[in-house]
Amino acid sequence: MNNSFQEISNIILNSDDILLYPHLNMDGDAMGSAAALCRALRNAGKNCYILIEDKVADNLAFLDKGYCTENADIIAEPDLSICIDCGDESRFPERAEKFRTSKKTICIDHHRTTKEFCDFNYIDPESAATAQLIYKLIKTMNIPVDKEIGEAIFAGITTDTGNFQYSNTTEETHRIVAELYEAGIDANKVSVEIYENNRIQRLMITSRILATLETLLDGKCALCYVTQEMLDETGAMMEETEGVVQQLRAISGVEVAVFLKEKDETTTKVSMRSKSYADVAKIAATLGGGGHVRAAGATINKPVCQAMELMKTKLIESLGE
Amino acid sequence: MNNSFQEISNIILNSDDILLYPHLNMDGDAMGSAAALCRALRNAGKNCYILIEDKVADNLAFLDKGYCTENADIIAEPDLSICIDCGDESRFPERAEKFRTSKKTICIDHHRTTKEFCDFNYIDPESAATAQLIYKLIKTMNIPVDKEIGEAIFAGITTDTGNFQYSNTTEETHRIVAELYEAGIDANKVSVEIYENNRIQRLMITSRILATLETLLDGKCALCYVTQEMLDETGAMMEETEGVVQQLRAISGVEVAVFLKEKDETTTKVSMRSKSYADVAKIAATLGGGGHVRAAGATINKPVCQAMELMKTKLIESLGE
């Protein structure tokens, strides 16, 4: 069972040296939540840092105002360690030992799979973003929400809700953001930082990938792939192909979008998205993969061209009448 | 000076036969605003239609639940005509005469250039979307906001605010949307209808256009073009190239994004966007065009390849040190 924000608030306010642990490979919600809480706790006079083990993504670096460090000794013996937007130690493996040595631990998260593995826990899968929980926690601690805290919270909310378009967005999401505007945030500035910071290689690889587009079953399925050669030629990184599968799903009439990534000559990773009725987790399961009804994936031990053919067969089997 | 919502509300509630006039080439705000008001007025027992003169875009057709008609005689002698999201008769040219014959006219709009050209006017350039004004008007009329009205209002707001990312978004925008959630809207469903309804040709032409990408001044400028041949080969329509210039601006380090559209062999249209400091209206003015500081355009009487060279010269002149 969750502790209350009041209990967690008391624990925090009675601590002085505090480390925050967002998950590896920080997204906007992890970084925004951690930055907001770090700023709030420093404003309240605490000695607080965000302990990380990998680089902050370029488009989120504007949120790090001297908060992030890879130096675990920056606080030798923390009174308190708070893990943020992550559900177990595998999400912060190199920091797990430091986390465990803390006198007390807290988990603030919104992932459905997270168990209560800390001394104190607030896990709410109904919350669109961990940043919403952090906002409520800061309010409970009676720390004023300034512009900077507000912008970090906004960063977390807008990225985890797909700019308020995903079905996790609620009335409360918009009420909180309205309050952030009251706190003086410049939401447009945050959006420009986060979304208008693509490397040119991202556009180049996207163009190349879209040129591989194939459709199936009267346009019900759309497939694309990327190879290592395409990455080499454009200088793009594999993570810059994220977003392609959503573009495929956004085609009119497409129910299932499939994106194949050549990992090496004999390994292909496949990502699938469905729009309104198809269960892609089921298709993924037949390939030894898994996921959700609308978003799933698998690894196929075949070269990318053979994996394309296999996927077409699978799609015809599961969606063809 | 604006009339009050109360005055306008009284005029509407004292009318029976009402025609609504959204602008030509309806966007999400025009269609969402008109659909919301039409539904509300029908719920209040009025005989109400949306009079149009061009086809409703495919991705907005879900909002038309028997409201839209091209038949101006559907109401022979309207008590009231309301123009929505448009500021003068040039925005509804084929319907202008009908509009003028109405006993009373009202304008509800948020465009900065709109003058008070109707009998009653509510023009608020500070409003992120006309849909926000329609929402407030419906509330003033005491007509309950049902799910369908709410979803149409949401469609208008989300499209005109760039999914709550543009700087026109305010605290009030989010407060209104929170109330729409209370009214039971399925915002995700609306978003999927509007944004996941692209023709496959849009992706194909985007891929082709991005392949023409050139940068200038150490990546400060990004340029792309589209030709009639590229449109022919992909089967795409020129309007499906919308959005490309924003993608260019979203490249890290790019201050000015330029997109050239070949109209015919001797005419090229150019769209420009700037990110944070460049005044593209100034550059457009040197080409006989115009616009805003961050978004401007012009027509160049040259073939597209020569227009590209001209634009590069202009960019170097205005941005090179």
Describe the structure in your own words.
2 copies of one chain form a homodimer. With 321 residues, the first copy, chain A, is an alpha/beta fold. Chain A is built from 12 helices and 12 strands. Chain A has helices at 5-13, 28-43, 96-101, 130-140, 147-160, 171-182, 187-195, 200-210, 228-234, 244-249, 280-285, 304-319, and strands at 17-22, 47-51, 68-69, 80-84, 104-109, 120-123, 214-216, 221-226, 256-264, 267-274, 290-291, 295-300. In chain A, the strands form 2 sheets. Chain A has a 6-stranded parallel sheet. In chain A, strands 7-8-9-10-12-11 form a 6-stranded mixed sheet, sandwiched between helices. In chain A, strand 1 (17-22), helix 2 and strand 2 (47-51) form a beta-alpha-beta unit. In chain A, helix 2 runs antiparallel to helix 5 (147-160), helix 5 runs antiparallel to helix 6 and helix 5 packs across helix 7 (187-195). The longest helix of chain A has 16 residues, at 28-43. The first copy, chain A, is elongated and about 60 Å long. The N and C termini of chain A lie far apart (46 Å). The model of chain A has no long low-confidence stretch (mean pLDDT 95). Chains A and B meet through helix 6, helix 7, helix 8 and helix 10 of A and helix 6, helix 7, helix 8 and helix 10 of B.
